[in-house]
UniProtKB/TrEMBL annotation:
This is Acetyltransferase. The lineage of its organism: Bacteria, Pseudomonadati, Pseudomonadota, Alphaproteobacteria, Hyphomicrobiales. It comes from the Bacteria. InterPro entries: Trans_hexapeptide_repeat (IPR050179), Trimer_LpxA-like_sf (IPR011004). It comes from Chelatococcus reniformis. Belongs to the transferase hexapeptide repeat family.
Amino acid sequence: MMTEPQAELLSNSPAWYADPALPGGLEFLDDLGVNPHARLPVPLKVEPVSVGHDVRIGEAALLKCGVCIGDGALIFPRTVVTNNVPPYAIVAGNPGEIIDFRFPERIVERLLEARWWRYHFHAIQELGPENVPAFLDRLELAIADRAVREFTPGALIGAAVIGSSCCDRYD
């Protein structure tokens, strides 16, 4: 299935590109009288969306294929993001526009340089994240003194994730 209309094709109808391996694919082609072995290859033009660390994407926001959302960005609900979003930008609207930045340029540079998300939550929480410049002062000192080290969590095993459900408490 194509993700976006593709003007250079003769047709964008799924009849040309239906995949017999998909549920209902053979029936769809049969109903149209199309030989499933004569179908064209699916012309996928899907560019993945890249989302940085500590990004907040509001409810019902739409992201165009291939956009990059920088670290720390805030995307308001129902925003239509059609362009790349720089780190720590605040984006809203249709089409999405940068309405502000969360922090001054020098603070953004320090946040990106420190890459604070690499450290365990409890270790950085003790540094007082409510005042960002002071937090960065303390984090940079802790990094220089090797008082904090990068957090490397263990791998999640599928059964462990599937076995735990936040919905259990609603039974």
